[in-house]
Design goal:
With about 140 residues, the chain is mainly β. It folds into two domains: about 40 residues, no CATH class; about 90 residues, no CATH class. It has a five-stranded antiparallel sheet with strand order 4-5-6-7-8, with no helix packed on it. A three-stranded antiparallel sheet has the order 2-1-3, with no helix packed on it.
Length: about 140
């Protein structure tokens, strides 16, 4: 929506100049040509905001956190799209949970819920990060029913 307000500088009267493009319209009250013009322009902008929150719970005297949580959006470079990720690493209860979804369709791309002690061969524990077949096998092992 666009709005235009014209005020006479001499008497303060607010008036409409019309849409003829003539900026020499005098003030209808005092005939002054001195005026102040205010233009208000607005646009509707839709933002697609992405966020990700990570929390770590650490007990005093322990080096590693007892629980780690990650929840939110992440850019998946390999497939050039945004995904939604939820991950819980609970060392006290020996639990690993991860769910990855396509943010547009809601389709679950990956879901893993298993004892943390059995969640090996991932992250820094990968044997050979260049071996795509072993990475695929590890991923499929995590998706057991």
């Amino acid at each position: 929506m666009n709005k235009r307000i014209v005020n006479c500088v001499d008497c303060g009267y607010e008036f409409d100049e019309g849409n003829n493009g003539n900026n020499q319209v005098p003030c209808p009250k005092c005939a002054s040509l001195k005026k102040q013009v205010q233009l208000f322009v607005s646009e509707n902008v839709f933002l697609n905001i992405k966020e990700c929150v990570g929390l770590k719970f650490k007990k005093q005297g322990q080096k590693r956190p007892s629980k780690e949580l990650i929840s939110g959006d992440e850019y998946f470079k390999k497939e050039n799209r945004w995904i939604s990720k939820e991950r819980i690493i609970d060392r006290e209860n020996d639990r690993y949970y991860e769910k990855v979804q396509d943010t547009e369709t809601g389709f679950v791309l990956h879901e893993c819920d298993e004892p943390l002690s059995e969640h090996t061969g991932h992250g820094s524990d990968k044997k050979n990060s260049n071996d795509r077949k072993s990475l695929y096998k590890i991923n499929m092992d995590c998706q057991r029913d």
